[in-house]
Amino acid sequence: MINRLVILSILLLLASPAFAVEIFYPADGTYVVHSDFLIVKAGEGVDGLTLDIGGEKSDLLDISGADYRAAFGDFLIVQPNWDSGKNTVIVEAYKAGKKIAEKKSTFFYQTNLTEPPPAGFKRFTMHLPEQEAFCADCHTMNPTPDQLKMVGADNPCASCHKRMLEHKNVHGPAGAWQCAYCHDAKSSPVRYVPRKVNAPLCNECHEGIVNKFKKSKKIHGPVEVGLCNACHDSHASDNPAQVLRPINELCLGCHEGVDKEIHVISVFSGGSHPLSGVEDPSRGVELSCVGCHDPHVGAARYYFRGGATSRMMLCQRCHKK
């Protein structure tokens, strides 16, 4: 009896597809730092998929057409915008209108690089041989050095990573698609890891500003320890200087509570010096934290702008009378 049950189980296993659906990216239990793609690989016989992203379920997506298959094979690639923090995606696979499989992925979208993701989430790693094998039919996974120097859409990195640059402010090397300057194409087992991390890499080009930092009396903590990427995106951002988030939001991520207490001075209305919402007379733009504080270095404790060494000197930059 036992042998017959074993044989029957093996036959049923062999008769079933190896898998019916797989969430390739972002994989379950991983964390990502870009909100770019959802990549699903459908198994044998699957002709339709539904996506449930954060509780919102799509209609049935038909992936059975000849034109679709010619372009994408059995992959479904969409470009959602993830919520900061934990996200859950549920994919249901259908064949001839009947649900045949379901796959779930819970992952973490890390938007604050100064805070590690929760325990249990590991960084998603794309450029491993077993991962790249999924993409090799459509993408150049082994580009030559000359191909890596190509600019724009001809660069092999652009076919997947061009969305990273669809922002207002783009870092020079990234905008020129000189990815291989910072990323090591020969690293192993993970390919394209940065040659160096944070300041040791950034300082190779930003030598002038580094010399300025060295001459300053006071250096902001992240700068002193070389954590450039704690504030700046090395590829692109919608914010000035490619900072990760709007200026005040970025600063208050570490300096919590400053916006909830009297700042600088208590005025007659009972409030304090504004942090935003008015013009910065010294620069002609909306006031923000960096209107008064240099985010990198300064001559005084609070990194006052313009070399100011006291609050009065700082105030006189805008309040001339």
Shape: elongated
First-last Cα distance = 98 Å
Q: Roughly what fraction of the amino acids lie in strands?
A: 15-25%
Q: Radius of gyration over alpha carbons?
A: 26 Å
Number of strands: 18
Mean pLDDT over the residues: 89
- Identify low-pLDDT runs: 1-18
Helicity, as a percent range: 10-25%
Largest sheet: 7 strands, mixed
Helix-strand category = alpha+beta
Word description of this protein:
It contains 13 helices and 18 strands. It starts with a helix and ends in a 6-residue tail after the last helix. The chain has about 325 residues and is an alpha+beta fold. β16 and β17 form a beta hairpin. It has three domains: about 110 residues, Immunoglobulins (Immunoglobulin-like, Sandwich), CATH 2.60.40.10; about 70 residues, no CATH class; about 110 residues, no CATH class. The strands form six sheets. Strands 2, 4, 5, 6, 8, 9 and 10 form a seven-stranded mixed beta sheet that branches.
